[in-house]
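Notebook, student rotation project (T.W.).
Task set for the rotation: take a protein with a known small-molecule partner, predict the structure of the complex, and write up what can be learned from the model alone. Partner molecule chosen: NAP. Sequence and SMILES entered below by T.W., checked by me.
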Amino acid sequence: MPKKIAFITGGNRGLGFQTALELKDKAKVVIGSRESAQGEEAVKKLRAQGAEAEVLEFDVTQPASHQAAYNYFNSRYGRLDILVNNAGIAGGTFPGTGPEHSASSVPMALLRKVFETNFFAQVALTEALLPLVRKSPAGRIVNLSSILGSLTMHADPKSSIYDSKSFAYDASKTALNAFTVHLAYELRDTKIKVNSAHPGWVKTDMGGREATMELSEGAKTSVMLATLPDNGPTGGYFHLGQTLPW
Ligand SMILES: NC(=O)c1ccc[n+]([C@@H]2O[C@H](COP(=O)([O-])OP(=O)(O)OC[C@H]3O[C@@H](n4cnc5c(N)ncnc54)[C@H](OP(=O)(O)O)[C@@H]3O)[C@@H](O)[C@H]2O)c1
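Predicted structure of the complex:
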């Protein structure tokens, strides 16, 4: 069976890179990278570890990038089997980095910037590539959310994230979760599965050194959702096989 074709945005480092690496036996991986030099470097590392890898210069906030990605996959492969919407930013909104995390004082420009990358751009890219995912015999769309997008957990004083409130980031991931649910509903009668992933608190540039999970563990949820069998779930919110409350 020919290898699947996977596109992983923000694949030059962190969870995106690791996801590409761990998909290597299942898919030809195309990583999106804002900086082409960093992308080339990442592709070298992926190839050295046996992956069939390519890089696409790609900024998820740029509509021209969406069109370029469509053209790339359409002309080379005529389809896209796996889309991992991984690129994301915290935008300096985490507690401890300033007042920007609070709902009462978040600067509007920051709120818009975080939503632009973590929500609007994800929706726009997915819309642009969906015609190609529809051509896959088993399309899989993975939206990199976060446990911090869970309204149920944020509202529960007993939950582990109750005191971890970063308004702009959290709300952007809640919005992304809404996209997962709505798109999965729309595509419920197709072979495409759409799910949200919480990777865990992972040691990356974003997660920081204090994070509790290693990179290899952190990519597992994305890989699992990217390679779901035909009878797998759609419209869900997962961490390492466990369902999270919305
Ligand atoms: N690490 C965690 O603990 C954790 C927990 C929950 C959820 N997540 C989510 O998992 C995803 C990956 O996180 P990470 O920890 O790997 O973060 P990271 O180490 O900061 O890497 C982020 C990646 O996204 C890319 N990116 C950012 N803005 C972009 C844009 N406009 N266009 C294209 N690419 C862009 C970055 O590219 P550059 O190198 O060019 O900046 C980089 O490749 C994110 O969506 C994040 O919210 C992470």
